[in-house]
Amino acid sequence: MEAAGLPDIVINTFRYYYDQLLHGQTGFIPENDIEPVESVPDSETFPDSLAQTGQEALPHTVMIKLNGGLGTSMGLDRAKSLLKVKNGLSFLDIIARQALTANIPLVLMNSFATRDDSLALLRQYPDLQRDHIPLDFVQHKVPKVAQADLSPVEWPADPDLEWCPPGHGDIYTALVTSGMLTRLLDAGYRYAFVSNVDNLGAALDPLILGYFVQNDLPFMMEVADRTEIDRKGGHLARRKSDGQLILREAAQCLPDDQPEFQNIQKHKYFNTNNLWLNLPVLKQYLEEHNYLLGLPMIRNSKTVDPRDSTSTPVYHLETAMGAAIAVFEGAGAVRVPRTRFAPVKTTNDLLAVRSDAYLLTEDYRIIQNPARKLGQIVIALDPAVYRLIDEMEARFPYGPPSLLDCQRLTIVGDVRFGREVVLKGQVELINPSGSQQVIQDFAVLEGLYRWD
Question: Catalytic residue at 65?
């Protein structure tokens, strides 16, 4: 790590987790050590006066977006945030315009793989540059560890694969080593709203900022009600030993505890990864603890070459940024509506957001179309045909069909859509024939269609 030029703080942080691994620690959080969180303050009940408090704090607030992913699961080979998602605008276009509308700085936490392309796009928005705050800082890399002997793995065929990102919990270390934390504080910024770049619901809300400011919290997590589709996501809990709120991720759950982990009636709040940081408190804590936040370790089992399941088994030693809720005494959580969690992870999500089921507002928020009366749409595209962006777009050459009045869309097999197709209710398109079937221009579909 020294040879790679990594800062001492990064090396010391990795050593902290590597020592845990050597001493047999797994990062598991047993069910017996925690208890469920019954309730948290609900942002939908906050008084309007908090929005004014938030507006007054905006000049001291910065928006930070995690922008390290390439979107390889959808076939992308560059920053996922450059993907066009709505009205010809990319994730980054929308986020940049959100920041300009709110008149606050935007800062990206990039990876080495996403930095150049992302900064090139942001040059289209020169007004983003303010108070001499850089537009980004870069997350670090750490060695992958061979599972067999716990040594740093060697992979001469591609030495770059010997390294991995240490999870988004690295944001706290990278804020320090990049000098970004000091720059923000010197420029008068006290609060940071942090979220994933692909969560189009994560716009800065002055009402929630007002609650954070008025209660002088050191750290705050936005949580939402867990549903069946959230069973495998990290959930909020309370540590029995001291009553502190904590985050437990799936990789931190013992196999025997999985049924309880996925019990959405018991553990009913999940982490949206929309977080609020009190920057002076963060700086003070880091200085007092030798720049080691001490987040719980996540030991992820992988192979050194993610494209080759027979390559050397390795561990990625990672941390989650939301786990900082367990570090700061007095840290809080607030319940937010599901609309603040709208990630685009798959082509299913992308088709929905691009369609008329969602709108882009004048202040650049993605919202469900108010004319839609059916709740959140459910889309299941055949992954053998539609998983990759290019494959999906080839089958919707004229854009998405109208999904305004569609409750559920299921496609099995290869189906291509013509112009201005309208889907209503529950639509199932089943094509086991092996040859592509075409939906004609202006067709209106409802119910089940099969091509045998």
Answer: no
